[in-house]
Amino acid sequence: MRTNSRRQLVAGNWKMNGDKALVEQMQKQLAAASLENMDVVICPPFPYFGQFDSKLKLGSQNISEFDSGAHTGEVSVAMLKEFNCQYVIIGHSERRADNHESNELVALKVAQVLKANLTPILCVGEPESVREDGTLFDYIATQLDAVLLKVGISQFAEIVLAYEPIWAIGTGKTASPAQAQEVHAFIRGHLAKQDDKIAANIVILYGGSVKGNNAQELFSQADVDGGLIGGASLNPEDFLSICQAANQ
């Protein structure tokens, strides 16, 4: 049961999906909704940033660790700020796997985002093999510690965390509310070893096959503060139902 005052957040990660029609549909759907008690962020592919109006908060799915220069295909924080981007997803499991992003590179990117006064959505999470072999908490602590070493605990006041069990992304499997709560509580406790107040106030999202029919139970857990939504964020009605669950 939630008893804290942390404001819930739902971020839609479109990944390499979407088109202009979806941008228009999503804006209409959310503009007509009453969601005063939570925050919504849309993270579309880069070409669609300019299609959104200023009413929606935008997030990027990635960022370069460099300010500028000869880095073909990369995007800088300065470019994102020109499009009113406020959030940046860092360390998503797909980027860690597909693009070989190490914990150290993730930490560099978090530092780059913080330097630009944007909000990192820092993703951590385990593959199924790690959960099964019993090293889950050590695995997640290592991911967190790389960023703590780079930016320090004080900077976590400006970070949003997202726990994404890799085995539940796009598979239809979902961590049970109790499983999600257990890991979120561990994350908060791990940060509390360095700063109780920052740990108590940090927003921790759950990401892993969240849908309209399971969102409310997940979001009602004491340490689950919303969701990082993949597939369901591509359907405006489904995404709205998840946002409404957070709004309650």
TrEMBL record:
CDD domains: TIM. GO terms for cellular component: cytosol. Its EC number is 5.3.1.1. Keywords: Cytoplasm, Gluconeogenesis, Glycolysis, Isomerase. It is an enzyme of class 5 (isomerase). It is found in: Cytoplasm. InterPro entries: Aldolase_TIM, TIM_sf, TrioseP_Isoase_bac/euk, Triosephosphate_isomerase, Triosephosphate_isomerase_AS. Pathway: Carbohydrate biosynthesis; gluconeogenesis; Carbohydrate degradation; glycolysis; D-glyceraldehyde 3-phosphate from glycerone phosphate: step 1/1; Carbohydrate metabolism; erythritol degradation. Gene3D superfamilies: Aldolase class I. Substrate binds at N13, W14, K15, G170, S209, G230, G231. It catalyses: D-glyceraldehyde 3-phosphate = dihydroxyacetone phosphate. GO terms for biological process: gluconeogenesis; glyceraldehyde-3-phosphate biosynthetic process; glycerol catabolic process; glycolytic process. GO terms for molecular function: triose-phosphate isomerase activity. The active site is at H92, E164. It comes from the Bacteria. Involved in the gluconeogenesis. Catalyzes stereospecifically the conversion of dihydroxyacetone phosphate (DHAP) to D-glyceraldehyde-3-phosphate (G3P). Homodimer. Belongs to the triosephosphate isomerase family. This is Triosephosphate isomerase. It comes from Paraglaciecola arctica BSs20135.
